[in-house]
Amino acid sequence: MTTAFDRMLTASRLRPGRFGAVVAGALVLAMTVAWAAGTQVYDPKTHQWISYDRTKAYKYWRQHKQVPEAFRPQVVRFRTAEKPGTIIIDGNQHFLYLVQPGQQAIRYGIGVGREGFGWAGIVRVGRMAEWPTWTPPAEMVERDPNARKWAGGQPGGPDNPLGARALYLYEGDQDTIYRIHGTPEPWTIGLDVSSGCIRMNNDDITDLHSRIQVGAKVIVLMQGAALYKGV
Amino acid sequence: MTKLQAICRAAFVAATGSTLLAAASCVSSPEPAQMARTTLQTAPADLQLLCANAVAAQTGVASEKVLPVSSSQVDAQSYRVELDAGGTRHSCVVDNEGKVGSVQ
Questions:
Q1: How many other CB atoms are found less than 10 A from the CB of residue B82?
Q2: Are A223 and B29 an interchain contact pair (Cβ–Cβ within 8 Å)?
């Protein structure tokens, strides 16, 4: 059965370039303040790459209610020997690829770990949850009064930091503490903002969750980051 | 300004404008899907993993233990990928079409 999301994916793949240029142009108009996150977006009017930071991303989101086109789901060419269903994360470029048959992949935009919190490795999806409970780590409970009230766990819901779905990443039978999850802050897609988890828009993580199985291989590429132990 | 000077000036301005317009139209923009990047210009993920497969095949190290750790563009046609294979570093060159040129 073709879902609305499938139709959106197809439309995204077939959308003419002019619409993207208009969207990107509007994005640049919304930009005012620099903040070093390393991400850049292209301004088709000036033919220049412009830095894209948290402030600009939030303004863009408020204006368009979606992320820039490059970070929206789309089917792309992906030459690989990995099996369909494998997840490949390019942390540097803020993309997550779900390998499909025929040398293709579905590409989603992601937010990744800020400086010092990135990592690379080969892991697997150990378990998955819908509208998961979030339990802040002990050190966060100590330093953050807002986290303290959720020391016993914040129930799932639209304000929960894990968003609509969570894929728990394991190495062997051991939880790595890293997750691929949704977010109540969708404008942060494309930025280095997390404590090491991979964040996606809630619609995207819900779609990814529906397409994969527990046990799926996950390859995390991130230049300059520490290798997760065991790799 | 004489009439002749005015005509010449208008012609000059028109010619300059046309040239600039032509030059601007020669600059190609990336596809909408490619209108985002980071300042760190790494090799595409699929090419990095093709190198990982080549290193695994050449060294006999299990593919689950081979991971690209850095990459850079060599020229317009190819990338160099550095890999960790079970604790040993290797280097690989792969072109834009996915053809692995060398593994060291």
A1: 16
A2: no
Who among B32, B53, B64 is closest to A69 (CB)?
B32
Each residue of B13-53: pLDDT tens digit? 555 444 444 444 455 788 877 888 887 889 999 999 999 99
| Complex prediction ipTM | 0.76
Q: Is A197 a catalytic residue?
A: yes
Q: Summarize pLDDT for A5-23 with one digit per residue, the tens.
A: 344 444 444 343 433 343 3
Could you tell me which chain B residue has the CA closest to the CA of A42? Answer: B35
Instruction: Output B64-71 pairs: Cβ under 8 A, ≥24 positions apart.
Output: B64/A122, B65/A122, B65/A231, B67/A120, B67/A121, B67/A122, B67/A219, B67/A221, B67/A227, B67/A231, B68/A221, B68/B43, B69/A120, B69/A223, B69/A227, B70/A223, B70/A224, B70/B42, B71/A223, B71/B42, B71/B43, B71/B47
Q: Is A64 a catalytic residue?
A: no
